TrEMBL record:
This is Fe2OG dioxygenase domain-containing protein. One of its GO terms (biological process) is response to light stimulus. The keyword Thylakoid does not apply. It comes from Populus trichocarpa. Belongs to the iron/ascorbate-dependent oxidoreductase family. GA20OX subfamily. Its cofactor is L-ascorbate. It comes from the Eukaryota. Pathway: Hormone biosynthesis; Plant hormone biosynthesis; gibberellin biosynthesis. It catalyses: gibberellin A12 + 2 2-oxoglutarate + 3 O2 + H(+) = gibberellin A9 + 2 succinate + 3 CO2 + 2 H2O. Residues 228-328 form the Fe2OG dioxygenase domain. The lineage of its organism: Eukaryota, Viridiplantae, Streptophyta, Embryophyta, Tracheophyta.
Amino acid sequence: MGIDIYKYHVSAPPNIHLCLSFSMDSPLKLQEQSKGFLFDSVLHKQAGFPKEFLWPDLVRAQQELSEPLVDLEGFFKGDEEATKQAANIIKDACSRHGFFQVINHGVDPNVIRDAEDYMDHFFRLPVSEKLKARRMPGSLCGYSGAHADRYASKLPWKETLSFRYHENSSDLVVLDFFKSALGNDFEQTGMVYQKYCEAMMDLSFAILELLAISLGVDRKLYRKFFEDGFSILRCNFYPPCQEPGNTLGTGPHCDSNSITILHQDQVGGLEIFTNKVWQTIPPLQGALIINIGDTFTALSNGKYKSCLHRAMVNQHEQRKSLAFFLSPREDKVVRPPQELVCSEGKRMYPDFTWLNLSRFVQNHYRADDSTLQNFTNWSQSVNL
């Protein structure tokens, strides 16, 4: 590729392999060259299939995930029986794999449609323009091409744009991001995503309340915990790929945040690993997908699972998705309620902050199904 990239290993306990890629020359210059080359010459122009995108020995999904839908209409109307039924479905799904779909979720379909449509305003820009919003090393926000600034192999076949959101009606943080990074021409785009994040936050509070009910704790407990949190919205763009059997749009990973709300377009591609096989979650018009992340696994004292999932690419069609990652305030201590500890008889994970877990994943570790346990081992070894 003409880019000199090497593997950098960070000091860690013997049972943890920590690996990131860093450019050996001017980091910013090579990041720009790398991203520009990968996406202008490879992903969009299909100039051969580069080995950096190869995922060897891919196993195809064998079946479709079959789960009852969680209907939120009764919950929003204050129907206790319907609320109990929704909480029971959530409890069953989260105890096994941590994925469920919600319908009648109260999010305006026009808000979702606009958020999906406005992705084109950014991803159709020339690479040089997209790089104005580039994600800096160690940051969660900005533009990334195939995460080429972080990894040297098994690159995902996608582009992403990520930005922060926090609950403060007087602070239009999403709008400000677009205007500062891309200029006033993107003011309307910023407003579209500001509204989308606000809708996702409202839905997050409802999901948190149902999660608390399903776990048998104070129904407002988790909602209060996240009221001053910071969230991330990530726009994912997956170009068509001539060799979809050789690569992935997003590699297998568990989310390290608390809960994720995903909207995927009708192309599809989301798969989860459960019951020892990969299973697809086909798009369902009007539904949103919710999944548990590692942070909520710790908040539930291990009762609810974060699950490996991945995104496939399509040979003929581009795919778009929107992932809203809910997280607590960075310095807030992640600790399960005492009643869950008592029911298990012990703490499954020690106290930690979201900031430390986030830094571990961004700077030291490629997320997988062992992230939370390896973070625990690592943090204890360095006395965080």
